[in-house]
Amino acid sequence: MNNKFIFVLLFSTSASFGDGSEQACGGSPKDIVFILDESGSIYGPDFKKQLDFIQSIIESLDVGLNRTHIGVMTFGTTERVIFQLNNYTDKNETKAAVANIKQIRGQTYTHLALRRLHQEMFSSNYSRPGVSRVAMVITDGESDFPKLTKEEAELCKNAGYVMLAVGVGAAVVQAELEAIASTADDVFKADNYSSLETLKKKLVSQACKPCENKPIDVAFLLDESTSIWGYDFKRVLDFVQSIIDYFDVGPNRTHVAVIAFATKSRVIFRLNKYPDKNKTKNAVANIKQRRGNTNTHLALEELRTNVFSSKYSRSWVSRVAIVITDGDSSNEKKTKAEAELLKKEGYRMLAVGVGTKVVQTELKTIASTADDVYKVDNYSSLMAIKDKLASRACERESVQLNLRLQK
């Protein structure tokens, strides 16, 4: 299934907002359409603030030919496409095209914009297969045809788009924003157009989440050996919960499992245990460290023969394992053998090493590729890699292709 995002004033992902750091949605291309209310209730200066806001969002995105593409549509009494997703691949040209939009005014026919979105802008004529599709609608009030708006929004969501909705001012109707948005977390409100900028980071982060609508089976393998202090093990659990926040957890969506390992390995919970994100995170938070040696190979064997077996895992989704360890395994030969068996099955293996005692060669042995190895100086630094790690875990189509080529 393609990941598709809709903004009703929404945005995209990960790490930079014009400060020179990594661009948002970097490494995870999106097709993003902004849907802008230009009705008569919006004063000219406020419409310009809306355009300025969209340009600031575009500035934070990783726009390019093989990266993020941008489209813009406006709506009043009629809807109109300002430019399609394949018109511009240069960031400055895209921003200039937004700056030149002239407001036509009219009624608030939101449903027409949503209809054209799924019938045209996200069609194969303009949108790319295999990338997340994101639509952003900014509106200042209730649509003139709420029933039709709801129906068209449902068609968009059923097509797999992620709908983010932002309402501006006191006239917006919460129920309609919720009808447009994919989930309650995808609804945003601003008091006025001057305060839109305060929403930017949250909207960008929500829009660029790499795992929305991408079902995967993901297992965390957590080192709980004696070399890890209790407060550092707590940091590992906090880190895992933050990664789970990226996933679209649900019965027909992403499933999560956890294995802990020291002298022995133990399954904390399997993939089919918790179909709810909050319950999954709570189960992680309640893990108690047992300590012992570092028998990584036992956890990998448990993963292969138990957690990723057909009894608990789904054959039609990508299966991803994230191994977090702070040192060399007690039996390097067996660790390598088990890792090779997992990779031959086509599972994506990600290896995270923490501290100065980890062995780079063993991390590479566990990981599917060199790009799947991550290292941090200490447990306090884990959060710095969560965006990249989650994004890598959810690269479904490219991952499966790469693994098939390696076989």
Describe this structure in words.
With 407 residues, the protein is α/β, with parallel strands linked by helices. The chain has helices spanning 44-60, 91-99, 110-121, 146-158, 174-180, 200-207, 230-244, 277-285, 296-307, 332-344, 360-366, 386-393, 396-406, and strands at 4-8, 30-37, 69-75, 79-83, 132-139, 161-168, 187-190, 216-223, 255-261, 265-269, 318-325, 348-354, 373-376. The strands form 2 sheets. Strands 1, 2, 3, 4, 5, 6 and 7 form a 7-stranded mixed beta sheet that branches. Helix 11 (360-366) links the parallel strand 12 and strand 13 (373-376). Helix 7 packs antiparallel against helix 8 (277-285) and helix 9 (296-307) packs parallel to helix 10 (332-344). The radius of gyration is 23 Å and the shape is elongated. The two termini are 24 Å apart. The model is unreliable at 1-22 and 396-407 (pLDDT under 50).
Helical stretch tally: 13
Strand portion, in percent?
15-25%
Largest sheet: 7 strands, mixed
Give the N-terminus to C-terminus distance in angstroms: 24 Å
Number of strands: 13
What quaternary form is this? single chain
What is the SS-derived class? alpha/beta
Low-pLDDT ranges: 1-22, 396-407
Question: What level of helicity do the residues show?
Answer: 25-40%
Query: What is the average per-residue confidence, as pLDDT, rounded to a whole number?
Result: 88
Cα shape:
elongated
What string, H for helix and E for strand, traces the elements in order?
EEHEEHHEHEHEHEHEEHHEHEHEHH
Radius of gyration, in Å, reads 23 Å
